[in-house]
Amino acid sequence: MNEHSGKVAVITGGARGFGRGFAEALAARGARVVLADLDGEEAARAAAAIGDLAEALALDVADEPAVAAAMADVARRHGGIDILINNAGIHSAAAAQPIGVLGLERSRQMFEVNVWGVIQCTLAAAPFMAGREGAAIVNISSMASYPCTTAYGVTKLAVRGVTTAFAHELGPQGIRVNAIAPGLIMTDTIRAELPEAVVAAVSAQQIVKREGATSDIVEAMLYLVSPGSGFVTGECLRVSGGVTLQA
Ligand SMILES: NC(=O)c1ccc[n+]([C@@H]2O[C@H](COP(=O)([O-])OP(=O)(O)OC[C@H]3O[C@@H](n4cnc5c(N)ncnc54)[C@H](O)[C@@H]3O)[C@@H](O)[C@H]2O)c1
């Protein structure tokens, strides 16, 4: 269980949901984990629950100077960065609407977090990851990027594009970049916000007839940051119970 011992992982949106699950799993395998979240207080609570290997960082991934300063500070204090999980995202039920319905301002705000946030964190962390053994970035896209019928879906399609672009751009520095496209996973946010009818409709399309769990996404992340995926870069792993494969 110590396969990530001595490694430093930055997890955006680490306070709750997938992000907290990622932090718990990496810390349990020996990594130092930095839970970077807009909600600094919840991140601090999560870090305290995880233990000595965890620390909280209040950070808005859309704030470019703050992101640059935060990555430099983490690297200075811990000697570098090995793993970056670009997980922070706006994904409320309200965001899952056509662009014209959501409106330009809210669509732009979602792009700032879901897309520019990924780009900014990647560019700010990459110099501190370059040349480190096993350096890996995992971006969290979504199955909503496949039908891509909403503003949210477009941001997550962009995350897949950014993943391919950075796999090429950072490959020469020894950094692998992959994405995960989760299907419907019942985190607290989803449980609180998504109407039951939508949950039922998505579940009906799944081949695997059970609820998706945070642990399903955590397992995919662990694969993509492990030496076992050392020949994999620029990919997007769909973890959805097979929703797009249904006839
Ligand atoms: N849960 C699902 O079914 C599902 C499916 C597909 C994709 N996703 C994606 O997975 C990611 C995590 O989902 P979740 O369900 O765990 O979400 P969540 O809402 O439980 O947690 C998201 C975290 O991101 C933080 N955050 C939001 N904006 C931020 C910002 N600007 N800077 C820093 N932190 C910020 C929030 O404070 C929160 O702690 C998101 O990118 C989401 O779009 C989720």
Description:
- It contains 9 helices and 7 strands.
- The mean pLDDT is 96.
- The radius of gyration is 17 Å and the shape is globular.
- It has helices spanning 17-28, 40-50, 64-78, 99-102, 104-129, 151-170, 188-193, 196-205, 214-224, and strands at 8-12, 32-37, 54-58, 83-86, 136-140, 176-182, 236-239.
- With 247 residues, the protein is α/β, with parallel strands linked by helices.
- It has a single domain (8-245), classed as 3-Layer(aba) Sandwich (Rossmann fold).
- Helix 1 (17-28) packs across helix 9 (214-224) and helix 3 runs parallel beside helix 5.
- Strands 3-2-1-4-5-6-7 form a 7-stranded parallel β-sheet, sandwiched between helices.
- It starts with 7 loop residues before the first strand and ends in an 8-residue tail after the last strand.
- Strand 2 (32-37), helix 2 (40-50) and strand 3 form a beta-alpha-beta unit.
- Nicotinamide-adenine-dinucleotide is lined by residues 12-13, 15-19, 37-39, 59-62, 87-91, 113, 117, 140, 142, 182, 184-185, 187-190.
